[in-house]
């Protein structure tokens, strides 16, 4: 066994039973790198402190032995993260479709409905709940 294999096996033994890099730890690490880069230009002690706190929390999650707790936290985080990313994706889609389509929200169930523009006043049927409402495109 050479030195590299010995080192890798020691690291593997050390990480056994630990959380490792989940999505929340990765995102905190990325935020810390972005803050450190921003701090190169802004030279703010507060930004530097926030970056160090993000690195510390990322390391805490990475090395934590409370795998179940970290997994539950990561699952909750992913729900919120996906909601934020989906709202940005929807805003981008609305922007791309702005010339050809209008988006309306059903007042009954909240479903977003896409209809073509230039059709005048039309009656829209919600695909989720079947509610009818009239809008001008």
Structural class: alpha+beta
Helix % is 55-70%
Radius of gyration over all CA atoms, rounded: 24 Å
Report the sheet-strand fraction.
Answer: 5-15%
Figure out the total of helices.
4
Q: In total, how many domains does the architecture comprise?
A: 2
Side by side, the strands of the main sheet go 1-2
Number of strands: 4
Shape: elongated
Mean pLDDT: 94
Major sheet description:
2 strands, antiparallel
Enumerate the spans where pLDDT stays under 50 for 5 or more consecutive residues: none
What's the assembly state of these chains? single chain
What is the string of SSEs from the N terminus onward? HHHHEEEE
Q: N-to-C terminal Cα separation, in Å?
A: 73 Å
Describe this structure in words.
With 137 residues, this protein is an alpha+beta fold. The protein has 2 domains: 1-96, no CATH class; 98-137, no CATH class. The chain is built from 4 helices and 4 strands. It has helices at residues 3-15, 23-42, 45-63, 67-96, and strands spanning 101-105, 112-116, 121-125, 132-136. The strands form 2 sheets. The protein has a two-stranded antiparallel sheet with strand order 1-2. The chain has a two-stranded antiparallel ribbon with strand order 3-4. Strand 3 and strand 4 (132-136) form a beta hairpin. Helix 2 (23-42) runs antiparallel to helix 3 (45-63). The longest helix has 30 residues, at 67-96. The radius of gyration is 24 Å and the shape is elongated. The model has no long low-confidence stretch (mean pLDDT 94).
